[in-house]
Amino acid sequence: MDKAKRKNLILLAIILLFGAFLRIYLIGEESFWMDEGASALTIKLYNGVEILKNVYLYGQTLPGFLPGISDLPFYHPTLYYWSRLFSISETSLRMYSALFGILSMIPVYFIARELFGNKNALLSTFLFSFSLSAINYAQEARPYSAYLFFGLCSIYYFIMSLKSNRNYHWGLYILFSLLGLYTHFLFEILLVFQALYLAFWLFAIKGLSLKEAFMQLRKWKKGHVQKIFISLFIIMLLSMPLILRTFRTGNAEDWREKPTLGLTLRFFVKYATWIYPDEELKNKVASNDLASLKASDYLLLASVAMVVLISYLAFLNFLISKIIKKWNFRQKFSEFAEENQNALFAFGWWAVPVIFSCVVSFLTPIPIFGPFNYMLYTLPAFNMMMAEGLLLFRKKYFKIIIVFFLLLNVMPVYSYYANIKWQQWREMSEYMKNVAGNDELIIISRYSGEVTFRYYYGDSDKIKGVKNVEEVSKLVKDQDSLWLILSFWKYGDPKGLIQDYINQHYYVVESKKFFDIDVYHYRKK
Length: 525
Description:
- This protein is of the alpha/beta class.
- It has 2 domains: 89-418, no CATH class; 425-524, D-Maltodextrin-Binding Protein, domain 2, CATH 3.40.190.
- Helix content is 65%, strand content 6%.
- The chain contains 24 helices and 5 strands.
- A 5-stranded mixed beta sheet has the order 2-1-3-5-4.
- It starts with a helix and ends with a strand.
- The relative contact order is 0.10.
- The model has no long low-confidence stretch (mean pLDDT 91).
């Protein structure tokens, strides 16, 4: 091994160790939040075979508790068998996601190397290693880290299949695409991009006419057209049950919102970083009390703003230098496409899923644009374009920018680990075990906390998940006292009708606040 390769391998190993550390550090420190509680209760109540049965029969791992038909057969059954080896706890269940998060750095490196070369590969992997969005989903007991890993492997073997046309690469492309599809519905959008790029590659880059492509396929001539057709046919055939279920009405879950300006800004900021404030800063920003912010608060907000600014300036530098300036109106489009296919691929990998999800959100009753986890497989594409944009600067400026960028990321990364991020269901449940009477009713939203509370508190007849005021009125009819637990009720009871009804008939004896959870003890008036 020559000196350059050895240095490259050492740098990659350091980056991978750094990224692994960030994905594992304090992983079990906080309570499961609402969605993680659904994963944990699933593993607690059912075995792997029973989970698969629930998914296929009901579209849910917890039928009867949650709305929608969006659960798929890969994540929860495999998580169950993982828990048989490592137990059920915050650390063990999240480590399953961390494993996929750590592994994801490897295809990031290889994809970037194929598209832009070794320098970009190292920088892209480094940027991805401390991406707060990547770290966050690697520390959640949810399927998104596996979803990201399968998306990256699908992309890598897609690229290699087009380059080599080997059966081995096409087979692995099919395998990882199917694993992704059976992990999360919106993996379908990544396949939409790949199908569009295949058409672009065949007709714009390779210069085939539709007739020529059809003749190759009809004559069963060995080549790309034949293998592309076979691969897409196998994927479509084996994923047909999922495709049919995607756009059923039952999949339009109530908590999803149509795209708004706030959701859109949040979505695009998460490509660069995110802000994880302490509760004091969160409350001050929410009440617009900016005058009382501390110096550290301003430093955090300014750091986040500057990270976002530099990230998107580097992205724009890539877009202008590698695509826009390369376009020459006198040049044939096929020549432009062939010369710049790697840059166009990276941009399409990022842009097509984002645009497609936005269009679907406006034109169908299923708004899928907004939650960043749905488009998580586009994050590495952004990192690669950003890295290429940074590498376009002169060497002396590049070093200054990188050092400055790293310093700016210190505060956001520190706040991620130092501050509470998720609802304190574990702490609240311990409190309720100590104070709630044996016969006192505990009311909680079925949609936004019942499953997580049942996981920590234990199953009990006095826990009642409710959906509306009508259900509450029947439950409290003969109750002298009760408990009300509020968390994320903008999804379960957005107008506050349930709490208003209880306030009309009961008065508050005591209350207790936890992070993103309010607990009220009521007695009858």
